[in-house]
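Let's study today's protein:

:::
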Amino acid sequence: MDLLTKTSLAKKILYQSNHRGCKEIDYILGSFAKEYVTNMDKKDLQDFALILTQNDLDIYDWITKKSVPPSHLNSNVMSLLLNFRN
């Protein structure tokens, strides 16, 4: 992944993190993205992009520990997100 592609993906992720449709998730994911996206490598960006394809209510339940994310989403980024305190 070249720098331009990585930058484009990072911009897309930042936008998607802040414009989810659910204010709580917008705030949590937006804050998380603002703090971490600029230092993510290619794999982390791809993992975060995959998380962003999930349903907002599922993401909220994972963050609030009401349920456990599916195993195919296990990654460094998911660990960071689940332990993120804003």
Summary: The chain has one domain: 3-82. The chain has a mean pLDDT of 93.
